[in-house]
């Protein structure tokens, strides 16, 4: 027995809204009937579901099934998901885990083949995926694209291994995602000409326009740490056909609050035409990636959402393959029990491991930027730091704290440097989510707190921790040191508590743990720290090895 739903039907391609009836037959839309050429002001609205066009599910600290449980409440029916976070820990085994776990719930995950595992040769990762393994992954029907090609120097210099991965994708008719922050002019043209079709790393409108002019599709990113919406949203007015929305990295508390629905509402507040907004949010990703997601057409899979309005985009219902998966703010996807997989070999550290010898002039410090993945390198003098018999110490009064990266895959010396803008007055925070190799990263106001925060993560074989003067806390992440096995709403509550604890120590960052996780991401300039030393992301070489 079929089902019929009456609502104002949002026909995005034809820029039309009319009152009608959508008939379901099993998992498909059998008919769409116009009842009136004009919308019914008393009726709700029905349109295709939202798509997150680039997201690392792992950054939500949730396994795919738990991510889906939260996302459908906000009208998200599918994702373009790059599993390179877990791949950097567990290789192809990690990719298979993500696909298999996601298949256990009614949600349309579209995973890619990670292109850069490890991300660079300047850090220690847990796995390696070579060009032949990438080709094997791309041959799978449940792998839809080649994930973000972060090694843009390798593309520009036509590195044979890099070009072999891109060629495999094109041979199999699958798109290639890009990652080229700040790339402009001839370099951008050459990068795009190599077959790169998208970029989600633009942080200025000028950069995005440069890439759009050469045929690249641009993703407007708004995650928990990287926020480029305000810089790019106006481009939708002239370039809606070649733009999409994405979150890239989104923590669980942020996912509970909202997803692509929030970006639609904000874009309409900026007076962007609603059809252009919905084209970017619903249609473009499906067409570009050939997603198995319906677009509210006869014969399509019955994937759609019912909205209260086209201003606030309040989601009343979410349907996937003809199944109601969320209604009135409640998820109807049950929690799925998950058996964790991991690779974690680090031993507990001592306070002495976190000392920086007071030899000569101190190295430049990393300046973290709230809402950005890029950093600045800033000079540091002896007068800026504190010094005792154990060497250079953090100086919280000047917001110069110690940053460390501890190898999680084998016992090795701790890499150390100084960092500004985390704002901690006391204590430390640590995490085994440290893009992209996911060693342990920590920032602290003193060596003892750093050591304790790191050891809390080691004791759980992965997690995020916070150490204050009077208390400490840890959120375990037993799946690859990246994800929890708990229900997503419970993880969100736990994360909210530990995030608040970090901010109570003085951090003014919007998302201190998310920002911390990117301080080891060497492919984003200007200065970062890997487990092997302080890295200059502009020269693409070490400023100093070790500490």
Furnish the topology, listing elements before pairings.
Blueprint: E1 3-11, E2 16-25, E3 28-36, E4 45-47, E5 50-55, H1 64-71, E6 76-81, H2 84-90, H3 92-102, E7 108-113, H4 131-138, E8 143-149, H5 152-156, H6 160-171, E9 176-178, H7 185-193, E10 198-199, H8 205-213, E11 217-221, H9 229-232, H10 236-239, E12 243-246, H11 252-257, H12 260-269, H13 274-288, E13 304-307, E14 315-320, E15 323-327, E16 330-331, E17 365-368, E18 375-378, E19 386-388, E20 391-393, E21 400-406, E22 415-420, E23 428-431, E24 440-444, H14 447-459, E25 463-467, E26 472-476, H15 488-504, H16 512-517, E27 527-530, E28 533-536, E29 541-545
Parallel strand pairs: 1-4, 5-6, 6-7, 7-8, 8-9, 10-11, 11-12, 17-22
Antiparallel strand pairs: 1-2, 2-3, 4-13, 13-14, 14-15, 15-16, 17-18, 19-20, 21-22, 21-24, 23-24, 23-25, 25-26, 27-28, 28-29
Q: Kindly provide the radius of gyration, computed on alpha-carbon positions and rounded to a whole number of angstroms.
A: 23 Å
- Helix segment count? 16
Query: Major sheet, described briefly?
Result: 8 strands, mixed
Give the terminus-to-terminus CA distance: 69 Å
Overall tally of domains? 2
Write a brief structural summary.
With 547 residues, this protein is α/β, with parallel strands linked by helices. The chain contains 16 helices and 29 strands.
Description:
The chain contains 16 helices and 29 strands. The protein has 547 residues and is α/β, with parallel strands linked by helices. Strand 19 and strand 20 form a beta hairpin. The longest helix has 17 residues, at 488-504. An 8-stranded mixed beta sheet has the order 3-2-1-4-13-14-15-16, with no helix packed on it. It has an 8-stranded mixed beta sheet with strand order 18-17-22-21-24-23-25-26, with helices on both faces. The N and C termini lie far apart (69 Å). The chain is globular, with a radius of gyration of 23 Å. It has 2 domains: 50-291, TIM Barrel, CATH 3.20.20; 351-545, no CATH class. Helix 2 (84-90) packs across helix 3 (92-102), helix 4 (131-138) runs parallel beside helix 6 (160-171) and helix 12 (260-269) runs antiparallel to helix 13.
């Amino acid at each position: 027995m079929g089902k019929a739903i009456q609502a104002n039907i949002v026909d995005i391609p034809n820029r039309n809204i009319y009152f009608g009836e959508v008939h379901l037959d099993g998992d498909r839309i059998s008919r769409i009937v116009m009842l009136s050429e004009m919308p019914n002001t008393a009726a709700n609205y029905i349109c295709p579901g939202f798509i997150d066009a680039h997201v690392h599910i792992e950054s939500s600290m949730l396994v795919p099934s738990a991510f889906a449980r939260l996302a459908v409440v906000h009208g998200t029916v599918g994702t373009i998901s790059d599993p390179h976070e877990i791949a950097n820990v567990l290789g192809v085994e990690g990719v298979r885990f993500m696909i298999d776990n996601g298949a256990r719930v009614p949600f349309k995950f579209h995973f890619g083949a990670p292109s850069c595992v490890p991300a660079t040769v300047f850090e220690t990762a847990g796995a390696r995926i070579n060009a032949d393994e990438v080709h094997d992954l791309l041959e799978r029907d449940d792998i839809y694209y080649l994930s973000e090609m972060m090694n843009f120097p390798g593309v520009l210099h036509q590195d044979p291994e890099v070009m072999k991965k891109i060629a495999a994708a094109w041979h199999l008719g699958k798109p290639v995602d890009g990652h080229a922050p700040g790339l402009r002019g001839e370099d951008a043209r050459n990068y795009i000409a190599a077959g790169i079709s998208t970029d989600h790393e633009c942080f200025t409108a000028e950069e995005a326009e440069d890439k759009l002019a050469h045929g690249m599709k641009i993703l407007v990113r708004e995650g928990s740490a990287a926020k480029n919406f305000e810089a790019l949203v106006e481009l939708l007015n002239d370039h809606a056909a070649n733009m999409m929305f994405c979150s890239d990295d989104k923590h669980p508390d942020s996912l509970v609050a909202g997803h692509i629905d929030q970006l639609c509402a904000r874009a309409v507040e900026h007076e962007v035409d609603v059809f252009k907004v919905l084209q970017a949010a619903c249609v473009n990703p499906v067409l570009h990636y050939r997603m198995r997601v319906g677009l509210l057409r006869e014969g399509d899979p019955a994937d759609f959402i019912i909205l209260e309005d086209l201003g606030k985009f309040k989601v009343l219902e979410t349907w996937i393959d003809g199944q109601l998966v969320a209604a009135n703010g409640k998820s109807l996807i049950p929690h799925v029990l998950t058996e964790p997989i991991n690779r974690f070999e680090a031993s507990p550290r001592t306070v002495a491991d976190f000392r920086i010898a007071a030899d000569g002039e101190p190295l430049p410090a990393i300046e973290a930027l709230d809402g950005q993945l890029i950093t600045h390198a800033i000079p540091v003098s002896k007068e800026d730091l504190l010094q005792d018999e154990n060497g250079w110490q953090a100086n919280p009064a000047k917001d110069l704290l110690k940053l460390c990266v501890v190898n999680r895959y084998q016992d090795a010396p701790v890499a150390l440097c100084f960092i500004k803008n985390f704002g901690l007055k006391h204590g430390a925070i640590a995490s085994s989510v440290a893009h992209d190799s996911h060693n342990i990263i920590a920032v602290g106001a003193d060596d003892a707190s750093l050591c304790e925060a790191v050891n809390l993560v080691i004791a759980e074989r992965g997690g995020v921790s916070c150490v204050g003067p009077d208390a400490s806390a840890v959120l375990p992440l037993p799946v690859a040191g990246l994800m929890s096995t708990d229900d997503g709403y419970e993880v969100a509550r736990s994360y909210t508590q530990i995030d608040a604890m970090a901010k109570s120590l003085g951090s003014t960052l919007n998302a201190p743990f998310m920002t911390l996780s990117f301080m080891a991401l060497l492919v984003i300039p200007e200065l970062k720290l890997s487990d092997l030393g302080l890295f200059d992301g502009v020269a693409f070489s070490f400023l100093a090895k070790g500490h």
